[in-house]
Design a protein that fits this description.
400 residues; alpha+beta; 2 domains; elongated
Length: 400
């Protein structure tokens, strides 16, 4: 019996391979035409994706903005170590140290400097009458301590004057102040606004008011050697953990925390212990759920409307995997279009929020996470359509 020519087999295999490649190349074109054939369904799909992207972007941006607002003063100070009273929950929740901590800290090997910081709640009496609770922050900036930043009017030098304080311009209405030079009272003692900052806002509704260390002690009733925190900076090359271990053994009735630990403690307290963070996360999850439901419903309806076309493809020899690829590509195109539109609207909303008290942040990491989330959301939504197509009987097309 004559054998089959191997070249014929090779030619047949090559033809099959070419056919598969052409079919795969046609998949994006088919998905594109299928997507844009019904413009109304496309619009509904994109609205669902855009809504989801904007909601998640705003909620996550608010979360990041809240985190930065809570830690704004900590990040500006940013020492290597914080000496804090035992049980301190956050930066704003300050009590007073005993006053016997500074010298043991300074005498510890590896310590370069130790700056005292007074933080306390007190009462601000407005010039026109009425009071407002504030967070008073006092430090010795002449020795490198924390000082107010982003000063728009006045200067640090002017804060050395008797009774001088600095406030943020966004708190003018709350504090009853209209301009630099106006006077008010803190704890029944006269103060004068000598400097105005921009963008130093607290997570709570209580304004930050900056002044010198000695003045803060007088206004809060602290002792002459007492402070709320000691900001410790170590010598270059020193082992921070080793210095911390020595400080713990030398100081009683106080905790020694790294900057990262104190920052995390402060943000976790306000975001999770108070429930504010959970509300933001719940809003973001709601956006994802709504987006998945809308996109899944739209893709399912679109697939159902094109069942005859998909059945024809199956009858012509298209594999289930090929049709699944078309549906996934259709979902991917929807995801990219919806993401770009949603990100654009999110950036507009973030820009508009700069004129308000809300702090919404968009970072490259968040933008990347949003893109991955959108792709995943649309892929999950496509599963419902794929399950419908999987049950298609190719023979059904011949009965029509």
């Amino acid at each position: 019996m004559t054998g089959i020519d191997p070249t014929l087999n090779a030619t047949a295999d090559h033809s099959l391979s070419d056919g598969k490649l052409k079919a795969i190349r046609m998949a994006p074109k088919l998905a594109f035409r299928n997507l844009f054939h019904d413009r109304m369904s496309l619009v509904v799909t994109l609205i669902g994706i855009v809504f989801s992207v904007v909601l998640v972007a705003v909620q996550c941006g608010l979360y990041l903005g809240s985190e930065r607002t809570i830690a704004v003063v900590l990040d500006e100070a940013k020492p290597d170590l914080w000496v804090v009273p035992v049980g301190t929950k956050s930066f704003d929740d300050a009590s007073l140290l005993t006053g016997r901590e500074t010298y043991p800290v300074l005498s510890t090997p590896g310590v370069q400097s130790a700056e005292e910081l007074v933080v306390g709640f007190t009462s601000w009496r407005k010039p026109q009458g009425g009071t407002k609770a504030i967070v008073l922050v006092g430090s010795n900036w002449t020795r490198g301590g924390l000082q107010p930043w982003n000063i728009q009017e006045g200067s640090i030098a002017e804060l050395n004057a008797p009774g001088a304080v600095a406030i943020d311009q966004s708190y003018f209405p709350d504090l009853g102040i209209n301009a630099v030079g106006e006077r008010a009272e803190i704890n029944k003692q006269r103060v004068t606004v000598k400097a105005v900052t921009k963008g130093i806002r607290a997570f709570t509704t209580l304004p930050y008011v900056f002044t010198s260390l000695e003045r803060a002690r007088q206004l809060t009733g602290a002792g002459p050697e007492q402070s709320s925190y000691i900001l410790v900076r170590t010598l270059p090359g020193s082992d921070i953990e080793a210095v911390r271990t020595q400080l713990v053994s030398r100081i009683k009735d106080a905790e020694v925390l790294t900057h990262a630990e104190f920052r995390a403690r402060s943000t976790n307290y306000w975001l999770f212990k108070t429930g504010a963070g959970m509300a933001l996360i719940a809003g973001a999850l709601l956006g994802v759920i709504v987006g998945v439901v809308i996109v899944a419903q739209t893709l399912y309806s679109s697939t159902k409307d094109h069942l005859n076309e998909f059945a024809t493809l199956r009858a012509l020899g298209a594999s289930a995997g090929y049709i699944h690829l078309v549906i996934l590509l259709q979902a991917l195109m929807s995801a990219v279009l919806g993401y770009l539109a949603g990100l654009g609207l999110s950036l507009i909303a973030i820009e508009a929020s700069k004129a308000t008290t809300l702090k919404i942040v968009m970072t490259p990491g968040l933008a990347g996470a949003l893109f991955a989330l959108t792709i995943g959301m649309c892929a999950i939504a496509a599963m419902s359509a794929i399950m419908k197509v999987t049950r298609i009987d190719p023979a059904g097309v011949f009965s029509r």
